[in-house]
Amino acid sequence: MAIGLVLASASPSRRMLMKNAGLDFEAIPAEIDEREIERGNAGRCLGPAELAAELACQKAIDVSQRLPSALVIGCDQTMSLGNRIFHKPADTVEAKANLLVLRGKTHRLNSAVALARNGAILWCDVDIADLTMREFSDDFLDLYLTRTAEAVLRSVGAYQLEGEGIQLFERIEGDYFTILGLPLLPLLAQLRELGEIDV
Questions:
Q1: pTM for the predicted model, two decimal places
Q2: Counting C-beta atoms within 10 Å of the first and last residue's C-beta, which end of the chain has fewer, N or C?
Q3: What is the secondary structure of 130-193 as a DSSP string?
Q4: Are the C-beta atoms of residues 150 and 119 closer than 8 Å to each other?
């Protein structure tokens, strides 16, 4: 059976977004080492948005090489404060340190999406959201980390906006889908342009 549209991701939230949008697809995770790609591009001095695009493209290419006839969607997101790129915290100590750095500041989520076929990129786009954390107290932070426990280790920012993480913020500017890691509106527009979904 021919495979049409493929999401190169194991992310439950990305799968949910695509399913809710009525897309017919299969999810086949990419098999790449993101940190290795990041280290390999250190000499290119990629900014956070460019790195997100590179990772999304590499994911799309990886799965597309295995399924050349499929149209493959690759996605990635980086979180940055200036040029500093954050990664998922290894433990709650690192999560607390990162949240203290972000407290009272505006950080950026750089969400990239790419389309590939036959091992080649057809299109790539990066959308950005700016999130401003409030000046929460040290006591609040300790209680937040206690209540959210291991959940803070599952996201790069040590928060989930759909959960208690929303209490860390005073302002959010950007598309909801971009914040969740899949710029869905540009993707849908491109799929329509390619004739993959109904106009």
A1: 0.91
A2: N
A3: EEEE----HHHHHHHHHHHGGGGGGSTTS--TTTGGGGGEEEEES-HHHHTT--HHHHHHHHHH
A4: no
Q: What whole-number distance in Å separates Cα of residue 165 and Cα of residue 136?
A: 12
pLDDT attached to residue 199: 81
Residue numbers annotated as active site:
76
pLDDT tens-digit readout, 104-127: 999 999 999 999 999 999 999 999
Structural domains of the chain in order of their starting residue, each with its CATH number: 5-193 (3.90.950.10)
Q: What is the pLDDT of residue 87?
A: 92
The residues, ordered by sequence, that sit 6+ positions from 86 with a Cβ below 8 Å of its Cβ are: 78, 79, 80, 98, 107, 156, 157
Token code pair at residue 9: 């991701």
> Average of pLDDT values for 93-98?
96
